[in-house]
Amino acid sequence: MKCPEYIKVNNKEYKINTDFRIAIECNEIAENPNIGDHERALAIIYKLYGEEALNDFQNHQKILELTQKYLACGQEIKEVHEKPDMDYVEDMDYIEASFMSDYNIDLNNIKMDWYKFNKLINGLSNSEMGNCCILNRVRNLRNFDVRTIKDEKERQKIIKAKKEVELKKNKTKKQTTEKQKESARKFIEALGLKGGN
Question: Which of 12, 114, 150, 169 would suit a FRET pair with 67, their CA atoms being 20 to 30 Å apart?
């Protein structure tokens, strides 16, 4: 799926700032409990679409609905029960190193859209392909079931390694998904809008 460049709301088009860094910032804003719901909604709209969309008060609800779809790369958000094995912000050093080793791409010196960024993350080398980038080594370690190791000394070694790379946000995807849905609902309420459109 190609990254959209615009959203269309009631015959108005708003250009999306498609840079992957902006989408990561928007996800961080959406999950930040220290920012009020109304402010979160406005900050995300402003970051992605600019002042014109920010001033389109009547269409904020629809803009936020389209934003949620955009941030999910056009996919429907699925409720999953496992803990996440990656965080864009916490793992950025691993992501940058993996893009360099697998694709020879320096993320600090390139503009890339959000959809392509996620496609490339999904295509990074993994052990099943004979080699493994640093990001996927860390993700595999986070997902590793230590109960499969019989030797106690080896198991403790793996447990220690897992703790060293554990995500600080330590939340489940289901909780994140429910939180995103709740945040979207609160955004709409904070803006004084009701369902529809």
Answer: 169
What are the tens digits of pLDDT across the range 122-155? 999 997 656 899 999 999 999 999 999 999 999 9
Give the Cα separation of 111 and 19 in Å (integer): 6
Round to whole Å and give the CA distance between 6 and 10.
13
**To which residue do tokens 């980038």 refer?**
133
Domain ranges (residues) in the chain:
6-80+173-190, 92-164
Tokens read off for 52:
């014109």
User: 30, 35, 74: which is closest to 177 by C-alpha?
Assistant: 30
* Rounded distance between C-alpha atoms, residue 73 and residue 12, angstroms: 21
Q: How many helices (H) and strands (E) does the chain have?
A: 9, 2
Percent of the chain with pLDDT over 70: 83
- Residue linked to tokens 């993996």: 98
Mean predicted confidence (pLDDT) in 88-109: 97
Q: What pLDDT score does 175 carry?
A: 47
pTM over 0.85: no
- Those residues whose C-beta lies under 8 Å from the C-beta of residue 178, and which sit 6 or more positions away, are 79
